[in-house]
């Protein structure tokens, strides 16, 4: 028979009877240390405030960096040709001097123009600008603009016979195509 003191299903017995049973502790058995919890809360609050302040400073530094980078980029765009312009100023001085002395000796005028041209070529070289003069070379539609064609028995068809206007490359990139006259097969 069954024990009249044994628990019915769903009923909790004393802790000693059932190893899975939950024991109920008296109210005074758990006394939290309020002072240590308040200290831990204050430390966590201080750490959170420190992290927030660091976040705000980092955000401000990033914003300043972004603004500074924007100004630097704007200045780079605005003053990108400054070095090239400084190289061109002496060439302009040469032209002004030639105009001022236009009534002088023609030989000296030509000599002055040649000196000015050398200054310009030197400025172009420093800036990475190279002239394209394809006379005698095969026609390249990527770098040349055909103005007209002429029959030629001396050159094969598609050869540049004459450069009407030089082209220019800026650091290997086409700045202006050379305008050329291209050979074609002789008329029969």
Key descriptive features of the protein:
3 helices, 6 strands, three-stranded antiparallel beta sheet, 46% helix, Nucleotide Exchange Factor Grpe, Chain A, domain 2, 188 residues, alpha+beta
Molecular structure report:
- This protein has 188 residues and is α+β, with helices and mostly antiparallel strands.
- Among the domains are: 33-78; 128-188, Head domain of nucleotide exchange factor GrpE (Nucleotide Exchange Factor Grpe, Chain A, domain 2).
- The chain has helices at residues 34-78, 82-100, 106-127; strands spanning 129-132, 144-151, 160-165, 167-170, 173-176, 178-184.
- A 3-stranded antiparallel sheet has the order 1-4-5.
- Strand 4 and strand 5 form a beta hairpin.
- Helix 2 (82-100) runs antiparallel to helix 3 (106-127).
- The longest helix has 45 residues, at 34-78.
- The chain is elongated, with a radius of gyration of 45 Å.
Briefly characterize the structure.
The chain has helices at residues 34-78, 82-100, 106-127, and strands at 129-132, 144-151, 160-165, 167-170, 173-176, 178-184.
SSE layout and pairing:
Layout: H1 34-78, H2 82-100, H3 106-127, E1 129-132, E2 144-151, E3 160-165, E4 167-170, E5 173-176, E6 178-184
Parallel strand pairs: 2-6
Antiparallel strand pairs: 1-4, 3-6, 4-5
Oligomer: single chain
Helix fraction bin: 40-55%
Low-confidence segments, given as residue ranges, are: none
Cross-sheet strand order for the largest sheet: 1-4-5
**Strand share of the residues?**
15-25%
Which CATH first-tier class of the domain at 128-188 would you pick? Mainly Beta
Q: What's the total helix number? A: 3
| Rounded radius of gyration (Å) | 45 Å
The CATH homology group name of the domain at 128-188: Head domain of nucleotide exchange factor GrpE
The tally of beta strands, per DSSP, is 6
Examine the secondary-structure arrangement and name the CATH architecture of the domain at 128-188.
Roll
CATH fold-level assignment of the domain at 128-188: Nucleotide Exchange Factor Grpe, Chain A, domain 2
Distance between the termini: 132 Å
């Amino acid at each position: 028979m069954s024990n009249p003191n044994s628990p019915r299903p769903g009923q909790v017995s004393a802790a000693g009877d059932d190893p899975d049973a939950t024991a109920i502790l008296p109210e005074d058995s758990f006394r939290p240390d309020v002072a240590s919890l308040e200290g831990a809360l204050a430390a966590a609050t201080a750490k959170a405030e420190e992290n927030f302040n660091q976040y705000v400073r980092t955000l401000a530094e990033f914003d300043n960096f972004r603004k500074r980078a924007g100004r630097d980029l704007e200045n780079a765009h605005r003053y990108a040709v400054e070095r090239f312009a400084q190289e061109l100023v002496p060439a302009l001085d040469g032209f002004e001097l030639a105009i001022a002395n236009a009534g002088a000796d023609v030989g000296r005028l030509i000599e002055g123009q040649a000196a000015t041209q050398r200054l310009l070529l030197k400025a172009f070289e420093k800036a990475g600008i190279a002239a394209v003069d394809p006379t005698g070379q095969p026609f390249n539609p990527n770098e040349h603009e055909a103005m007209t064609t002429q029959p030629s028995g001396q050159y094969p068809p598609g050869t540049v016979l004459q450069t009407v206007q030089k082209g220019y490359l800026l650091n290997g990139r086409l700045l202006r195509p050379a305008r050329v006259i291209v050979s074609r097969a002789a008329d029969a």
